[in-house]
Amino acid sequence: MNKTDLENWKRKLRRWLQRRNGSDTFGRDVCYASLFLVFLDVFLKTGVLTRISFIGYLYSMFRAFSTNVNRRSLENQRYMELRWKLISSLQRYKNRAIDLKDHRYYTCPNCGQKLRVPRGKGKIEITCPKCGHKFDKKS
User: Which residues share a beta bridge with 134?
Assistant: First the structure.
């Protein structure tokens, strides 16, 4: 195989890959999850997780080489929205857990608004900023 043949193969491969979806966040995360399942199966020794991970890997390759770029883009966008919701809710719970030593959280009995009040102030009257309802609680 000489240099011109190699250049022709490269050019053909580049042209073929131009119309493909390529790697996106959803495809990479499916691939990472598949890899995690393989490592998990090394310890569990079931064989089932390896088969499932192989299916996930094939799906990520299908996504990468798919010519239906619009559909793959919509799938990736939906995945990114779900991923963002999960990450932001986990971040909220983390921040709330860190904040529990200095504050208490209550829910307004009238409208359901979550309210944060400082700890150690004794019995206080809490006014909901959303609906104006007042109720007594121990901080």
Answer: 127
